[in-house]
Design goal:
The structure holds 2 protein chains of 2 kinds. By secondary structure, chain A is an alpha+beta fold. Helix content of chain A is 27%, strand content 14%. Chain A is extended. Chain B is α+β, with helices and mostly antiparallel strands. Chain B has 34 helices and 32 strands. In chain B, strand 25 (574-580) and strand 26 (586-592) form a beta hairpin. The chains are: A alpha+beta, B alpha+beta. Chain A: Residues 1-22 have a biased composition (Low complexity).
C-alpha cells in the first residue's frame, strides 16, 4: 500500500540496485506510426451520397453489359432435340432398358431438324445428358491420371475401382468408371443429299491433350469385361488423339451437362432441314436420363446463355431503382447528416 | 520488473548507526530452501520426509548431500520436451484436436478430400503456435538467466568473491549489502548493526511494505569480517525446502551447542512462493466458444441432411457408378443405413472448413501484437517521471478492456499519490495552515468562485511530507501564540509518539525517515520543521533536538526515555507512548482517530473539544486525513502500578494482543486534547478529468476506501466522481475488512450483474480485488510490485485508464469482433457453397473445390487481410475516441458481438453462398468458350472459388481498406462472372450497410461523419491530455444526434442512483440478493475510520 518514500530521497548507497542514472535507461517507447497506431487509413463512409452514387454507378455499368451479353446470347442460334424418347421402337417403350441393352437390335434412328435462323460456321455439335452424376464422388475419383499420362504407369490403377483390371489381373487402360462409361451415341448429318462432315479434331481442351493424356499411351483391355459401360476405343490410337474420351473425362460440374461432339464447318441457312442419322447406343434409360442433341453457333461470349445478360440487367435495374428510392427517401425524410 | 512470477526479497535499509555505506552488510549462511529445478509456481511441493543437515562453510561436507544448485528455471520446456509437450499443449485445444481427428479421418478412403486439405492448415497453425510458445519460453529463459547471473558476495577462503547467484552452494556464507536482494533463503548471522538486527522489506513475498526486524543469534554476531567469518563452522539441521513464509524450525549446532532457530533468523527468498498470475479468459472468448459450439451444431445438421440424402439417393440404376454386388459399404444400396453412417463421416471431413481453424491462432497473434506493439509502446501511456511505460501482462484480455462497465478503484495510491503532506493543524482550538487543497479548489470552482493561486509567502516550507504555511507557527513564531505550552505539547507529541526510524546524516536537511506509513513520516517531518527535530532512536530513548528555548537559534538536544509503546492497530485506531522527560515528568502521548480519542478525553477540555471538532470537520471536508493528538500527565505511582500490569500482559503467552489492548485501555483515559493534524493525500494528475471522461463513457466507478465518510465523499467530489445532483452511496469499511469487502463487491457485480468489471489498485491489499475482477489493473512505477504482479495490465498513472480503455480497449474490442464475425462469415460462406453442391452430386460428398484451394482458403487466401483488420482497423482515431467517450458505450452494450450481429452475418453467408453456387453453375451451364468447349467441374469450382475469395475480401474492404492482389485468369466469361457474382453477392450487404448507417447509425459512425475528411496524423498527439473540448458546433450537432436515439440511459456515475438501483435490481432474486446490500450497509454503518494507517 505504502510506497515507502525513502528510496527516492535516500542517498545513493553505492549498491548495485541503486537508482538508475536518469534518461540513460529510459523505457520511453520509441515513436513510430505503427506502434502509435497512426498509420493512415482510408475509411469508406456510406453516406447517402455515396450509397446513391454507388448504386447509380453499378447500374450504369451493369445495364450496358447486360444488354451486350443478352444481344450476344440472342445472336446465338441453337437447335436442341431430345431424341431418347423418340428413338425407341414403339414396341419397346415398355421396357427401354431391355431395348438399349440388347445388342442385336439395330439402334439407328433418323431425326430431321429445321434450322430456325441462319447459322454461321463453325457450328458446334453437343450432346446433353440429364440426371447423369458425373460429379458423384465415386465416379469422379474412379480414374488414374498417372496411367493416362504415362505408358510406363499402366499398372497404377489404384483409384479405378471397380474397373481396375480384367479378370486375369492385367490392367485396363484407361481404367476407371469414367472411361468405362464413355458416351457412344454417334451422329451423322446430311443437308439435302449432301453429307455435312463433322470435324472431331480440337474438341478437347489443348491443355488436356498436351499434358493429361500421353501420346504413347494406347488403350488396353478396354471394355473387355462382361458389362460394357459405353464406347470402345481404337487400340491403335494413342489416348491424346482420342478426343471423345478426353472430352468425356473432363467431368461435368452438374448432373445435367453438355459435351462437345464435333464441329461443322459450313454455314446453314434458315429453314434448311438437316437429317440426323444417329445411333442410339447409350443407356440413359436405366436412370431416366434425357439425351439431347444440340447444334449451336458461338458469339464473343460463348454459347447461348441468357442468364448472364438477364442477371446483369436485373441487377443494373435494381440498382437504378434503389438509387432512385434512396434519393426519394433522402429528399423526403433526410437524416441529419453531420457536415452536410 | 518483468512478467515472470519470481520474486525477490527486497533488503531494506539497516537501522544501524552512521556507518560507511560500503561496509553495511550482513553475512549469512545460505540455507538454500530454494529447491532449484523448475519450481512449480504457487503450489505446495510434496515434503520430503526428513529434515536436512547443512554444514556451514564446508562445501566438501555438503557435497555428499548433493544439494541442488541455486539456479532457477521458470521455463515451460527444454530442448527435448519442447516438441512433445508443446504439441500436447496445442492439442488440448478443442479446435486443434478436432482438426487432428479430421486429418486422420482424411487419410482414410472415406474422405472426399486428400489429407493435404486438413494437414496443411493444421500444420501451419501448429507451427505458428509453437513458434510463439518457443519465443515466450525463450524470453523466460533469458529472464531466468539474468536472475541466475545476478552477482552476490560469497566467502571464499578469507575473501569475499563476487559470484553469480546460480553458483551459490548450500552452506556458503554470503554478504548482502543494503538494498540488495536475497539470492536464496538465508540464515542471518551477523550485521554491521551492533545489535545484530536488520530490517527487511518483504513486499515481494507478502506484499507488506513495512520493515520487519530480523535478529541474529547473539552467538554469531561476531562473524562479520571475512577473516573471522571464515572460521565459522557449524551444522544446521532444518526442515526441507518449502513455501511457508511464517514458520521455520531448525537448529544451529555450533561448538557442540544446539541453538534453536526461529523465523526471526531467516531471510527468505522463497522462490517457491512465486505466484503465477491466474489466467483469465475474456468474456468475448467465452462467447466465441458458444459460437463455435453453434457452428458444430450447424455442422452436424448439415452432415445429417447430407447423410440421409445419400442413403436415399444410392441406387443401382446409376449403372455408371459401378455399384456391383461387391461394392464397398459406403455405396452399397443393399445397406442404406451403413451408407448413411459412413457418408456422415465423409461429410464431416468435407465440411470441416466451417470450423475456422486459424481463428484462435489469428486472434492470439492479433492480441499479442496489440499488447506488445500497441499497449506497451503507447507514448500516451508512458509516464516520464517514473520512467514507466504501460505493460500488458497478459494478452488474453485486450478486448475485455473495451467492455468494462464497472471500475473498482482503490483510493490511496491509485487515485491519490500516496505522498502524504502535513497540510494543516489545529492546536488548542486554533486552526493553522493557509494552504488550499485541490478539493477546495474543485468545490470553489463548482460554486462558481475563482480562487487565485496566491504567491507563496516567505515562511512557506515545502519538502517531502510537509507542505505547510502559516506565519503564526513557522520559524519559532509559535512562541508568540497565546498558549505556547500547548504548542510545545503538540510538537512533542509529533516528535515522540511514533515508530519511525531516522536514517542518514543527523542533520535536518539530510535525514530521512523510515516509517511504516507515509503519514507517520509526514508528522515527524512536521515536528522537525517546527523545531523539534527527531534525529536518533535507541531501543529505550528518543533524541530530539529542540529549539524552543526563548532565544532564537539556540538548540538543545533532549533525550526522552520511552518507557512504553502502545502500538497502533486497526481495532485500537490509536497509538500511545509513555515517556519520561529528563526532568522526570511522566507523560503519555496519544494520537489516533477522532472518535476513539474523544471517547477517552477528560471532562476538563470541553471548549477545545468543540472547536477542534469543527476543525476536524473542516479538514475532513477539504479531503484531508486527520488525526487527534492528546496527552496525559502521569504520576509515578500510577505509572508503576500500571506498568506492572503491562509487563504481565506483555509476557503472557496466551491472548497477548488482547491483554495488551486491555491494559492500554486502563491508562489511555482522562486524556487532554491538544489538537489535530491534517494531512493531504494529493490526487494524481488528471484524475478528475479521467473520471469524468470514463463516466461519460458509461463506466460506473466505485471507489473503495477506508477513509472517513466526509473525506471519501470529498475525494469523490474532487474527482468529479459525483456532482451535486446525485445521490451518494459510498461504501466505507474497516481496513481489515476492506480487502474482503472489495473482493466481495467485485465478484458480486461480476457474477450478479453479469457486467464486465475492472479493478485498479496499487498495493497488496488490492490483489484479491484485482483477481476477482474481469480485468485487474495495477499501478506500476512504485516500489511494491505485488499489485503489478497480480495485475493483467500495469499502468503508471490512473489517468492512463482513459487511453487503456477508450482507445486500446475499444479498438481491441471492435477489431476482435470484426475478426471473429468475419471468420465466422467467410468460413460459413465457403462451407455452405460446398453444402449446396452436395445436393447435386447425389449426396456423395464430392468436394467442390480443389484440395489446395480448400486448404489454403483459410490460411492464405483470406488470412492476411483479416489479420490486417485485426491490427489496423480504426473506426475513429485515438483522439476522437477520447473526445467522444460515449462511443465506448457500444462496447459495454456489446453492440458488435451480439447474436443479432452474428445472425446478420450468417444471413449474408447463406445468401452469398447461394449466389456463388447457383450463379456460377447456372452461368456456366450451357456456356462455352468461343471455341465451343464446355467447362468441367474444376473449371466451375475454380470460378466459384475466385468469386468467393474476391467477394469475401471485398466484404472486408467494405469494413476497411487494404490491398490484395490476385492473379486473374482466362476468358471474358470468367471476368463477367467475376464482376457479376461479387456485385450481386455484396449488393445486399451494401444495401444493408447503407440502410443501417442511414437509419440506425452507430455512434462511431456519427463521429466519423463529423470528422470526415480530417487528416489524422502526428498532430493527434496534441490530444495527449484528453481534450474533451468540442467546438460548440460539434457539441451541438453531436448532442442533437444523440437525442432521438438515446434511450435515457443513466450516466453511469459511480454513485448515480439509476446505476445503483439497476445493479441491485438485477441482483434481486438472482444471485444472493441480500448480500450485496449487506456488505454495503454493514460497511456504511460501521464507525468511520480516521486516516491513520
Amino acid at each position: 500500500m505504502n510506497s515507502s518514500g525513502g528510496s527516492a530521497a535516500g542517498p545513493s548507497s553505492g549498491s548495485g540496485d541503486g537508482s538508475a542514472p536518469p534518461r540513460r535507461n529510459s523505457k520511453r517507447p520509441k515513436y513510430s506510426k505503427f506502434t502509435q497506431q497512426e498509420l493512415p487509413a482510408c475509411k469508406p463512409i456510406l453516406t447517402p451520397k455515396w450509397v446513391i452514387s454507388v448504386f447509380t454507378l453499378v447500374g450504369v455499368i451493369f445495364v450496358p453489359i447486360g444488354i451486350a451479353a443478352l444481344m450476344a446470347s440472342n445472336n446465338v442460334v441453337e437447335i436442341v432435340d431430345r431424341y431418347d424418347t423418340e428413338c425407341i421402337p414403339a414396341s419397346m417403350t415398355g421396357d427401354k432398358v431391355a431395348y438399349i441393352q440388347n445388342d442385336t437390335i439395330n439402334k439407328i434412328c433418323t431425326r430431321n431438324l429445321t434450322v430456325p435462323k441462319d447459322m454461321d460456321q463453325p457450328i458446334y455439335v453437343y450432346y446433353q445428358l440429364d440426371n447423369f452424376y458425373q460429379n458423384h464422388r465415386r465416379y469422379v475419383k474412379s480414374r488414374s491420371d498417372a496411367q493416362l499420362r504415362d505408358a510406363d504407369q499402366a499398372n497404377k490403377t489404384s483409384g479405378c475401382d471397380p474397373e481396375k483390371t480384367t479378370k486375369d489381373g492385367s490392367p485396363i487402360v484407361p481404367c476407371g468408371l469414367i472411361a468405362w462409361s464413355l458416351f457412344n451415341d454417334t451422329y451423322n448429318f446430311t443437308l439435302g443429299n449432301k453429307n455435312l462432315s463433322v470435324n472431331k479434331n480440337g474438341i478437347s481442351w489443348a491443355s488436356d491433350r498436351d499434358h493429361k493424356f500421353g501420346k504413347d499411351v494406347y488403350p488396353k483391355n478396354f471394355q473387355n469385361g462382361v458389362l460394357r459401360g459405353g464406347a470402345s476405343l481404337d487400340p491403335n490410337k494413342p489416348l491424346n488423339e482420342q478426343e471423345d474420351l478426353i472430352v468425356w473425362m473432363r467431368t461435368a460440374a452438374l448432373p445435367t451437362f453438355r459435351k462437345l461432339y464435333g464441329k461443322i464447318h459450313q454455314d446453314l441457312k434458315a429453314n434448311d432441314i438437316i437429317m440426323v442419322t444417329l445411333e442410339n447406343n447409350y443407356n440413359t434409360y436405366s436412370f431416366n436420363g434425357k439425351k439431347k442433341l444440340v447444334l449451336s453457333t458461338s458469339s464473343w461470349l460463348g454459347g447461348k446463355n441468357d442468364f448472364l445478360g438477364i442477371a446483369y440487367l436485373t441487377i443494373g435495374g435494381l440498382c437504378f431503382f434503389l438509387a432512385t428510392a434512396f434519393t426519394v427517401v433522402y429528399l423526403v425524410k433526410p437524416r441529419y447528416w453531420v457536415g452536410y | 520488473m518483468n512478467g515472470v512470477g519470481w520474486e525477490r526479497v527486497r533488503m531494506a535499509r539497516l537501522g544501524g548507526e552512521a556507518a560507511v555505506v560500503g561496509t553495511r552488510r550482513r553475512e549469512v549462511v545460505d540455507l538454500r530452501q530454494v529447491s532449484s529445478q523448475t519450481v512449480r509456481l504457487g503450489r505446495v511441493q510434496p515434503q520430503h520426509p526428513s529434515h536436512r543437515t547443512i554444514y556451514c562453510n564446508d562445501s566438501d561436507a555438503n557435497f555428499i548431500a548433493r544439494f541442488k544448485s541455486n539456479s532457477i528455471s521458470t521455463t515451460k520446456y527444454n530442448v527435448l520436451t519442447f516438441l512433445p509437450k508443446g504439441l500436447f499443449e496445442q492439442f488440448r485445444r478443442v479446435a486443434n484436436l478436432y482438426f487432428l481427428m479430421i486429418s486422420i479421418l482424411s487419410t482414410t478412403p472415406i474422405s472426399p478430400v486428400s489429407p493435404v486439405t486438413n494437414v496443411v492448415p493444421l500444420s501451419l497453425v501448429l507451427l505458428v503456435s509453437l513458434i510463439k510458445e518457443a519465443f515466450e519460453d525463450w524470453k523466460r529463459l533469458e529472464n531466468d538467466n539474468s536472475i541466475n547471473n545476478t552477482a552476490v558476495d560469497v566467502l571464499q577462503g578469507q575473501n569475499w568473491e563476487n559470484m553469480p547467484w546460480r553458483k551459490l552452494q548450500v552452506g556458503d556464507i554470503v554478504r548482502v549489502k543494503q538494498d540488495g536482494f536475497f539470492p536464496a533463503d538465508l540464515l542471518f548471522l551477523a550485521s554491521t548493526n551492533p545489535d545484530g538486527v536488520c530490517y527487511i522489506e518483504t513486499a515481494n513475498l507478502d506484499g507488506e511494505t513495512n520493515l520487519k526486524i530480523r535478529k541474529a543469534l547473539e552467538k554469531t554476531w561476531d562473524y562479520l569480517a571475512p577473516e573471522i567469518a571464515d572460521k565459522f563452522k557449524g551444522e544446521i539441521q532444518c526442515e526441507q525446502p518449502n513455501n511457508s513464509l511464517y514458520t521455520f524450525t531448525g537448529n544451529l549446532i555450533i561448538e557442540s551447542q544446539t541453538l534453536p532457530l526461529s523465523p526471526n533468523q531467516i531471510l527468505l527468498r522463497v522462490m517457491m512462493n512465486s505466484m503465477s498470475v491466474p489466467s483469465k479468459r475474456s468474456t468475448l472468448e467465452r462467447k466465441l466458444d458458444k459460437l463455435i459450439l453453434t457452428l458444430f451444431g450447424g455442422l452436424f445438421m448439415m452432415c445429417l441432411i447430407g447423410a440421409i440424402g445419400s442413403g436415399v439417393f444410392i441406387n443401382r440404376k446409376y449403372y455408371f457408378l459401378g455399384l456391383f454386388d461387391d461394392v464397398e459399404g459406403q455405396f452399397n444400396p443393399n445397406n442404406r443405413f451403413v451408407v448413411t453412417i459412413l457418408t456422415m463421416f465423409t461429410l464431416i471431413t468435407l465440411y470441416s472448413t466451417i470450423i475456422p481453424i486459424s481463428l484462435y491462432v489469428s486472434i492470439e497473434m492479433i492480441k499479442f501484437i496489440q499488447c506488445a506493439q500497441f499497449i506497451d509502446k503507447d507514448l500516451h501511456m508512458y509516464h516520464a517521471e517514473s520512467n514507466t511505460p504501460a505493460l500488458a501482462r497478459t494478452s488474453n484480455l485486450n478486448e475485455e478492456l473495451g467492455q468494462v462497465e464497472y471500475i473498482f478503484s482503490d483510493k490511496t495510491g491509485t487515485l491519490t499519490r500516496n505522498l502524504m503532506e502535513f497540510f494543516k493543524c489545529s492546536i488548542g482550538g486554533e486552526a493553522y495552515g493557509t494552504g488550499i487543497t485541490e478539493i477546495e479548489k474543485g468545490q470553489a470552482e463548482r460554486s462558481g468562485k475563482k480562487l487565485s493561486d496566491d504567491a507563496k509567502s516567505d515562511t512557506a516550507v515545502h519538502e517531502k511530507g510537509f507542505n505547510f504555511d502559516d506565519a503564526r507557527l513557522m520559524h519559532g513564531a509559535w512562541r508568540n501564540e497565546h498558549d505556547p505550552e500547548i504548542c510545545k505539547e503538540f510538537f512533542r507529541c509529533l516528535a515522540l509518539c511514533h515508530t519511525v526510524l531516522p536514517e542518514g546524516d543527523e542533520s535536518p536537511e539530510r535525514i530521512t525517515y523510515q516509517a511504516a506509513s507515509p503519514d507517520e513520516a509526514a508528522l515527524v517531518t512536521a515536528a522537525k520543521n517546527f523545531g523539534f527535530f527527531f534525529y536518533r532512536r535507541t531501543p529505550t530513548t528518543v533524541m530530539v533536538r529542540e529549539s524552543h528555548v526563548e532565544m532564537m537559534g539556540i538548540k538543545q538536544d533532549v533525550s526522552y526515555e520511552i518507557l512504553n509503546v502502545l502500538e497502533f492497530n486497526s481495532t485500537r485506531k490509536r497509538q500511545s507512548i509513555v515517556c519520561r522527560y529528563p526532568n522526570g515528568r511522566l507523560v503519555l502521548y496519544c494520537k489516533g482517530a477522532d472518535t476513539v480519542i474523544y471517547e477517552r478525553l477528560s471532562n476538563a477540555s470541553n471548549d477545545i473539544r468543540k472547536v477542534t471538532r469543527e476543525h476536524l470537520e473542516q479538514f475532513g471536508s477539504a479531503g484531508l486525513r486527520t488525526l487527534c493528538l492528546a496527552y496525559r500527565e502521569l504520576t509515578n505511582d500510577l505509572y508503576e502500578k500500571w506498568n506492572e500490569k503491562f509487563i504481565q500482559a506483555k509476557s503472557s503467552l496466551r491472548d497477548r494482543e488482547k491483554k495488551l489492548d486491555e491494559v492500554a485501555e486502563i491508562i489511555e483515559k482522562d486524556l487532554i486534547l491538544i489538537g489535530c493534524t491534517a494531512i493531504e493525500d494529493k490526487l494524481q494528475d488528471g484524475v478528475p478529468v479521467c473520471i469524468e471522461t470514463l463516466a461519460r463513457a458509461g463506466i460506473k466507478i466505485w471507489v473503495l476506501t477506508g477513509d472517513k465518510m466526509e473525506t471519501a465523499i470529498n475525494i469523490a467530489y474532487a474527482c468529479n466522481l459525483i456532482n451535486n445532483d446525485m445521490k451518494q452511496f459510498i461504501i466505507s469499511s474497516e481496513t481489515d475488512a476492506i480487502q474482503e469487502a472489495e473482493e466481495k463487491v467485485t465478484s458480486l457485480v461480476k457474477k450478479g450483474a453479469h457486467r464486465i468489471t475492472l479493478s485498479i489498485g496499487d498495493g497488496a491489499n488490492d490483489v484479491s480485488m484485482m483477481q476477482a475482477a474481469h480485468v485487474g489493473v495495477g499501478i506500476s512505477g512504485l516500489e511494491g510490485m505485488q499489485a503489478v504482479m497480480a495485475s493483467d495490465f500495469a499502468i503508471a498513472q490512473f489517468r492512463f485508464l482513459t487511453d487503456l480503455l477508450l482507445v486500446h480497449g475499444r479498438w481491441s474490442y471492435i477489431r476482435l469482433c470484426k475478426v471473429i464475425t468475419y471468420f465466422f462469415y467467410k468460413n460459413l460462406t465457403f462451407t455452405l457453397t460446398q453444402f449446396w453442391f452436395t445436393f447435386q452430386t447425389g449426396f456423395s460428398g464430392q468436394r467442390f473445390y480443389d484440395d489446395w484451394f480448400q486448404s489454403l482458403y483459410n490460411v492464405i487466401f483470406t488470412a492476411l487481410p483479416v489479420i490486417i483488420v485485426g491490427l489496423f482497423d480504426k473506426d475513429v482515431s485515438a483522439s476522437l475516441s477520447k473526445k467522444y467517450p460515449e462511443l465506448y458505450r457500444e462496447g459495454i452494450r456489446n453492440m458488435f458481438f451480439k447474436w443479432r450481429v452474428v445472425a446478420v452475418w450468417a444471413f449474408f453467408a447463406v445468401y452469398q453462398s447461394l449466389i456463388f453456387y447457383y450463379f456460377t453453375t447456372t452461368a456456366s451451364q450451357n456456356g462455352h468458350n468461343s471455341s465451343g468447349m464446355i467447362f468441367g467441374l474444376w473449371d466451375v469450382s475454380t470460378m466459384a472459388f475466385s468469386c468467393a475469395v474476391v467477394t469475401v475480401n471485398l466484404r472486408l474492404l467494405m469494413e476497411n481498406v487494404y490491398f490484395t492482389i490476385y492473379v486473374l485468369l482466362s476468358t471474358f466469361y470468367f471476368y463477367l462472372t467475376l464482376l457479376l457474382v461479387p456485385v450481386v453477392a455484396l449488393l445486399s450487404d451494401f444495401f444493408y450497410l447503407g440502410i443501417q448507417r442511414w437509419f440506425f447509425p452507430y455512434n462511431y459512425q456519427i463521429v466519423q461523419e463529423i470528422h470526415r475528411g480530417e487528416y489524422e496524423g502526428v498532430g493527434s498527439r496534441e490530444f495527449l491530455e484528453i481534450g474533451n473540448n468540442l467546438t460548440p458546433d460539434e457539441a451541438r450537432s453531436y448532442a442533437i444526434l444523440q437525442l432521438p436515439r438515446e434511450k435515457s440511459r443513466h450516466t453511469g456515475f459511480a454513485f448515480d442512483s439509476p446505476g445503483y438501483e439497476s445493479f441491485f435490481a438485477s441482483q434481486q432474486g438472482v444471485f444472493a440478493p441480500i448480500m450485496a446490500w449487506d456488505v454495503a450497509r454493514r460497511a456504511s454503518v460501521r464507525s468511520k475510520r480516521t486516516s491513520h494507517r
